[in-house]
Design goal:
Chain lengths: 125, 125
DNA sequence: AATAATTTTAGAATGAGTCTAAAAACCATT
DNA sequence: AATGGTTTTTAGACTCATTCTAAAATTATT
């Protein structure tokens, strides 16, 4: 656990946002000005294989990182892009049953319009 | 519906594979040698917004395309990379309930080891 | 047939992520 | 505290999927 890795983990844990590698790089640089982009990528990869964080792929141009490794759903507002976590009870056993085998992880993304954006749209109409 | 778009759709519908844009480009070129990469990308985007195909993001370096727009799960073997479709019954209503609202689409990817690869590993052990 | 609107094309541009080789930091042993 | 060996960091070059652009081709409209 180098000081770079500690700072990166701290950045990810400091709030509930799902940051991109680039955002993490910028935030880490505030605390460790000399840090390199490659170090951020190296450590994000290392932290994920240590199961301390989880990469969320395919929401936009760049991947994002979740401060929890435990699988859970992500609900993504199509208007404002905000990402929130959510859970489905008994989901693990449902999946196992459906695919007929154990699995190592899952990723569930639901696209919808969040309450705030629905409100805005209603006002506009 | 230009002849380029028809060929691209034909390629996607011709088998059950989840091809990358580049594979689709190569296959389309066999039927329409002059076709351009940009046309493939343009049409994949158009076809998805017409709800004729669905983009699968985040499995690897490049996106893949599914010949059905209807949301369903994808099970991805971590050993060989094969992608298979699967369905969970009543999943739509479960999600609605969990997120407390209607949604426009979802994406569910489960990472596991397929039967063939499990067999291979067993033999190796 | 003439004009306008859309699509295609080729290639340049973008940008997230990876790779590389050298410098720096770390660690265990004296 | 010096030694040597291993791991990590760094900066920048590189890759490669995807997007953008501007001109040419095609299609639709009058």
């Amino acid at each position: 656990m180098t000081k770079q890795r500690a700072v990166i983990l701290e950045v990810i844990r400091s709030d509930m946002c799902h940051h991109t590698a680039d955002e993490i790089f910028t935030l880490a640089k505030e605390k460790l000005p000399g840090i390199s982009r490659a170090t951020v990528y190296n450590n994000l990869k290392a932290l994920e294989s240590e199961k301390l964080i989880r990469r969320i792929t395919g929401d936009a141009l760049s991947d994002r990182y979740d401060n929890s490794y435990i699988p859970h759903g992500h609900m993504i507002c199509e208007e404002c892009g905000a990402i929130k976590d959510f859970n489905l009870s008994d989901f693990d056993s449902m999946i196992s049953e459906a695919i007929g085998s154990d699995f190592s992880s899952y990723e569930l993304k639901v696209r919808y319009t969040c309450e705030a954006c629905r409100g805005v749209m209603r006002k506009d109409a």
